[in-house]
């Protein structure tokens, strides 16, 4: 018996599915065509309390764990939607909850829970350093009761649909730290104050309908109490949040995979060519069956990651492996689905090409597949560091 098919999780699945039924494929297709943002969907998800699932009850949320949160995002994608529009709030909130001061938590968390404020953005990636995060060049220099931020970020998502952003910047130059992962700090940036006052946002047109931006910091001043946790420990805090992020993205990929498999099987049963359903041909059946097996296997690792995270264990290995397996499996499922649909897979009205583009992202962001392999090689298999 699957221990994760319990009453509580099934109720979450049913609730999210009922909400998603109000936002059918046509809704997402139109948003994609118009390169718009699903405002009404995000509002509905917020109003029903799904986005504050992991905020503790004392701060106005539901006090649920990563397992429950992962089911919410999985179901959005399994219903044909795109959780990439909202998932930031789930893992960014975790960073604030785990490392923020009491004052920060009691000010921000109730506002996030009620939907008054949105914390959808996290600024880590930089154009000149890419995945080599410890080399980031954005600096935060303390001057009196302020930090002054200078530098540049790239691919920072949902900035135009968020009030707050978690920002990683160097507070001690790389040359002055003993370990390269030290000397970076995280800040809670109030985007409403920052944009136009030292922060410039430039949208990046991209292959998915994903609102993402280049950010330019030119002497942006942040109040000293924007610092989250201790100065210099930001990289560790970010990594902690990234494990939650990886498990959540794995769940989204599993949702995508299930959508592709269901869609493929339905089409293969119905489409008749050469006088029989195409699904009667093993050449059509097998890639769908294989995708199903791989999604189910990835799902097991996703549950392991959630269980470890929720019980306070180090979920680094399982979260990375879950993200790797699920992103790969959803991509295989996407390929099988497109192939099963033949030419119709390319027609926007079937939604396959849209979901195909959306799920492809997860091989690259929020962490590329190669970097997960290198993590496993170095940290689990004790192979020499490659960088
Ligand atoms: C749509 C979108 C949204 C994003 N949203 C955010 C966001 O909100 N916040 C944020 O901070 N970032 C965000 N990102 C950035 C994303 O996390 C990075 O693109 C990703 O981590 C890869 O970094 P990079 O693009 O700089 O690639 P690079 O680091 O330049 O790497 C390029 C390729 O080389 C490979 N590679 C590099 N070094 C090695 C090595 N040593 N061994 C093997 N392979 C290697 C990588 O795996 C990758 O495939 C987003 C990206 C996209 C596309």
UniProtKB/TrEMBL annotation:
Keywords: FAD, Flavoprotein, Oxidoreductase. Residues 9-116 form the Acyl-CoA dehydrogenase/oxidase N-terminal domain. The keyword rRNA-binding does not apply. It comes from the Bacteria. It holds the Pfam family Acyl-CoA_dh_N. Belongs to the acyl-CoA dehydrogenase family. This is Acyl-CoA/acyl-ACP dehydrogenase. It comes from Pseudomonas petrae. The lineage of its organism: Bacteria, Pseudomonadati, Pseudomonadota, Gammaproteobacteria, Pseudomonadales.
